[in-house]
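User: Modeling request: complex.
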Amino acid sequence: MKLTPLIAALFVGATVSASAAEAPATYAKNCAACHGKDGAGQTKAGKQLDAKDFTDAAYQKSYTDAQAFTDIKNGLKDKSGKQLMKPFAEKLTDDEIKTLIAYVRTLQK
Ligand code: HEC
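Assistant: Request completed. Predicted assembly structure:
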């Protein structure tokens, strides 16, 4: 039977699109309070912490996916040690974090 790889491929595809479909809701729940629904960071907390503008192409180029992954997972502090982003390691799986980074990339205008 040569069908097995095809079926496996279908399952992999289904899993990926399911978590990608959840990304906007996961973002709204965990990230939008600071980064804003549209990613511009113009929320009360976002302004206070100086969240940058995800809709800005130049800002999107200023960090790598790997950097974002580490900062979301382990948290991010400024130079004086003030907490910017809390660590999401206990709340989100690695896959969820990766999917969120991909989603954040789509917020660029
Ligand atoms: C408590 C507010 C807050 C929350 C909640 C928050 N962030 Fe952030 N985030 C920030 C701040 C502030 C920065 C730093 C902006 C700067 O100076 O570059 C940042 C930076 C980032 C960056 C830029 C890359 C980097 O590592 O510097 C990404 C991507 C990001 N956040 C994604 C997320 C995602 C996805 C979530 C939800 C799981 C989230 N953030 C939740 C405040 C927050």
